[in-house]
Amino acid sequence: MGCIQSKTSHLPSPDQDPPITPDPKPDPANGEQVDQDLVPAFKEFGLSELRAATNGFSSELIVSESGEKAPNVVYKGKLRNNRFIAIKRFSKQSWPDPQQFVKEASGVGKVRHKKLVNLIGCCAEGDERLLVAEYMPNDTLSKHLFHWEKQPLPWEMRVRVAYYIAQALDHCSSENRKIYHDLNAYRVLFDEEGDPRLSSFGLMKNSHDGKSYSTNLAYTPPEFLRTGRVIPESVIYSYGTVLLDLLSGKHIPPSHALDLIRGKNSLLLMDSSLEGQYANEDASALVELASKCLQYEARDRPDIKFLLSAVAPLQKQQEVASHVLMGITKTPVVIPTLLSPLGKACARMDLTAVHDILLKTGYKDEEGAENELSFQEWTQQVQDMLNTKKFGDIAFRDKDFKNAIEYYSKLVSMMSVPSGTVFVRRALSCLMIEQPELALRDAMQAQVCLPEWPTAFYMQALALSKLGMETDAQDMLNDGASFEAKKQNSWRS
Fold first, then answer.
1. pTM of the model
2. CATH class name, domain 38-134
3. What is the pLDDT of residues 287-320, one digit of tens each?
4. Superfamily of structural domain 341-492
5. Is 182 a catalytic residue?
C-alpha cells in the first residue's frame, strides 16, 4: 500500500509539547485599525453577509442564555475574512424606521474602548434590524457566577470585574454616552484573554422609544418604575445590583440586601465559596459601595468617578492574567463553516453526538473500497476476522470503549488492507477514555486509508482540540468541510 502524506505531518509527536504560535499581526488591508484593540471601522453590513455568517440564523448558533426565548436573540457567526462576531437581532417593531436604527447604531459604534465589547456594524434591510459586535468566547458574568461548572469565580476576579466595568462606564460617560440600558450580569462578557468587558449592546436602546427594560422588576431602578425612563443615575443603581451579584454569587433583590446591610449583617451577603480569599475590610468596602449605589433617590447615589476611586484599591493581583485567575484555557475563537452534523459535533467537541453519528453511518463510506470487509472465499481466518469485527462493533455500540479498542486493535493486525472506519471508531474510543494522542494517530491512519474522507479530517480536528492545538484543529475542520463540499458538488453533477 502506498504511503500518503498526512495533512498533520508537520505536527510534532503527540508526546511533545504543542508548538507556540505567535499572535497574528493586524492587517490594515483587511480593514483592521491598528489601535488599542485592533477593531475594524464601523460599517453597514448586507443582510446576505450576516445570513451567511450565521448559517441562515441557525438556532445552533444562538448564544443568548435564554436561547430563542430572549427578547432580542444574539447569534455567533463568522465573516468571510474569518473574523468572529456576535449579532443581536431586533424585531422591526422595535425600530420601524431603518434610518433611525442605523443612526443610533452608528453613534454607539463610535464609542471604542478595550474594556468594551465594541460594536463593529449594523444592518437594516427589509424587516431585519441587526447589530454586529466583537465575539467573546468565554461566556457571561452570569454564567461564571450562577452556573459555574469547574470553579466559582475567585474574589480577585470579582473585584477586577467591578473595576473594569467602572472603567468602561467612565469611558462611555466621557463620550457623552451616559445612559446604559439594563446593566446586569448578562451584559458582562469575557474575551479570549479572560478579561471582563461590558457589552456595547447596552448602549443601544432595545426599541426606538427606549421604554423596554428586560430585567426582573426587583432589580429595576426605582425611577424607571415611576417614569418608564432611564437616567444616568439609573446606571449607578444597576451597577450596585451587579456588585451584589459579585459579592453573593447569587441573585439577591436590592431591598433584601439593604435590609441586611442596615442590620449590620452584611457578611451574610458574602458567597460562602469565597471564604479565606479576601480581607474583611475589602469586602466591607464593596458592600458599602453597593449600598451607596442602591439609594432610592437618584441624587443620593455616587457618580462614576467615585466608583473608580472605590474599587481601584481593591485590585491586589493585577499582575496575574485573568485567564489564570479564572482557570480557563486561552484558545483562539473558532466557528468553522461546516457542512455536516458530524463536522459540527466535532467542532463543539460533543463526543456523544459523534458516537451516535458514527453508529448511524456504519461502514457505508467504505463501500466499493478494496478492503477485507467483503470476501470472495470463506476461510477460518475470514471467520475469525468477522467475529472480531462483530465483537468490536458490539462493544462500540454499547459504549464499552476499552473492549472496543481491544477488538479493533486485534482486527487491524488481522487485516491486510486496513479499514478507515475501524481506525475512526478506535480513535473515538480513545477519546472517550482520555487518550487523545492515540486518537490523533488513528484519525491520521483513517486519512491514509481514505485520503479525501471528511470524517478522517473531522476526527483529527477533534483530537487536536483535545490536545489544545486549536489552530491545527481549525485547519482540519476547514479541510473536512472542503472535501465535504467537493463530494456534494460531484453528486449534483
1. 0.62
2. alpha beta
3. 999 999 999 999 999 999 999 999 999 999 999 9
4. Tetratricopeptide repeat domain (1.25.40.10)
5. yes
